[in-house]
Each structure stands twice: as C-alpha cells, then as structure tokens.
Amino acid sequence: MTTTELMGSAFVMGLAGSLHCIGMCGPLAFSLPVSHTNNKARLAGGLIYNSGRITTYSVMGVLFGTAGGFLINTNWQAKLSITLGILILLYLFIPKKMGHVYKTGFLNKPFLFLRQSLAKLFASKKYSSLFSIGLLNGLLPCGLVYLALGSSLITSEPLAGFTFMFFFGLGTFPAMLAAVYFGNYLNQQLRLRISRALPVFLFIMAALLILRGLELGIPFVSPAIGTHHQHAAVSCH
Questions:
Q1: Domains in the chain, number
Q2: 111 has a pLDDT exceeding 60
C-alpha cells in the first residue's frame, strides 16, 4: 500500500465513523469548558481539544505500528483486516452479549483514573486544559479507535502506524470540531437520532475493512496491501 493510499484509507475510516465519534465522545465535546457566547473562543477551544485528541492517536499509531512489525507477518495483513470487519458485524448482530461484556466492572476499572483526571481538567478554564482533555479523550475506550489501531498494527511500521492514526484523526476532525462549536445548539432529540444512526456507520466501517482485506486494487478503499512488500522481496534477488 502506498503512502497516499494509506492516508486515504485512514481518512475515509475516520470520516465514515464521524457519527460514531459524536455519539460516543459528543457529550464530552458538548460540555467542554469553553465560552458559548464567544464564537472565536469556541473555535479556538475546539481546535486545541481536537489537536490533543489527534496527538494521542498519532502516538498510539507509532506504538502499534512498531508492535506490528514484531508480531505480524505481512502475509497476515489482509486476513486481519477481514477479521476486524467480521468482528464489527458480530458486534452489530449480537449487541446484547457484547454490551454485557463491556459493562462489566473488570473492563471499566482501568479507565476510572482517566475519568477522574478529566473531571479535574473540566474545572479549569485554561486552553492548556483543553489540550489535556483531548489527550486523555484519545485514551478513553472507543470501538472505532480500537479498529483504527488494529489497522495501524497491520501496517507493521512505526511511520506507517503514525500516518494511519494521524489521518484517521483528521477524518474525525470536522465532525468533532462541529460538535464543540455547535454542540450548545443540538437538542436531545437530534443527539438521539445521531445515536440511532451509529449502527449504519459501523456497518460501513465493517464493509471498508473487509474490502480492504480483499485487496481488489481499488485506490483508498481496497488497495493491494501486500504489493509493496512483494516488489521489495523480488528486488532482493
């Protein structure tokens, strides 16, 4: 996969999952400690908050890309992408069982410290706090981010992992910036409609991952993942 295809795939994943971001992280973005009467302050706050969030994604991309280089054979990349897509479909069709597992205290305990830290930051009115909120927000449990990290793991390279997560973050950026800027105007009914639309976008995410694994040669959507590695291997002989 070329760098351009990597960036395109990541951006499409983030853009397609934007409603999921609003549904899961929207309440946090809506309630950021920014002035709701000053448009410039809201815009600046949204930019700083999202910069922190994308920074965390990018750093995790480096870590997962590095780990993938040690753990994953390049021949597995397509199969892992398809597997991730199938797991999303299973989540959609078996929501009660998956939800029961997620709600257990065992899985929630590691994130209690993050939530407590976020609560302290929300009490501050400083712009630096908004950046820190974004940093910690990137660490909160999110199925969409886990899927993106799975894709960065598949890249098997630190720089590629960074690139994937950075452009994934950019894909979610427009919706999350809008959530900060217009969140004060969104009523509960509209937020509920967004939440109900999440399964549709999760299905799109699953389709994108499965198509990516099928390596149909479609730029950005289903590029030939192993082509670059195969050419590299041939040139060594």
A1: 1
A2: yes
